[in-house]
User: Fold this.
Amino acid sequence: MHPTLQIIQKEHASLTAMLQSIRMMIKRGPRDKPLTFFEVMRAMLFYIDEFPEKSHHPKETNYLFPVILKRCPELKGVIDRLDAEHDAGETRVRELQHLLLAWELLGETHRQAFVSACETYIDYYLEHIHVENTQLLPQAAQHLSAEDWVSLDMEFSKNLDPLAHFGVAASELQTPLAQEFNHLFTQITHHAPAPIGLGDD
Ligand SMILES: [Fe+2]
Ligand SMILES: [Fe+2]
Assistant:
């Protein structure tokens, strides 16, 4: 498989695991550890804001989508939809972070607004990934040229998802970004449920 496709699928898998763990966290609620709950939930939303929104989506929109459009113009409708979702993504995750703060700082009456918005967001995001995995990546694998892949592989191997490097010994971390995120992921995995976390506490 082309490195670009491997990187995208790995990043989709990391993001899917994070979204599934957020869903489990919401279902479980703060219980008797509200400080930990809000801290970990904030960290998870911050990761989505910081990596998928700032790096994964721009790589797709700026490099992958234009090449697919050139080779497969019949996919314009799908690409337009995915691009529009990329445009709105950062605002949506910022709104979620604000709704979470409202719940944390103003109390239980704000809980449902966050839970509903977060469920909608997770559904939308999983569907977005599913569409890319099923309607774009297989077509790219089939129709892009060798030259297309050379330039895509170069761009996609920059700014790798730090979550993909988590768990690697600090001295072996491949990118400064992965080193920066190591503390954040340690905090998340110690407290969040599976598939991201280590247990139910
Ligand atoms: Fe995307
Ligand atoms: Fe994607």
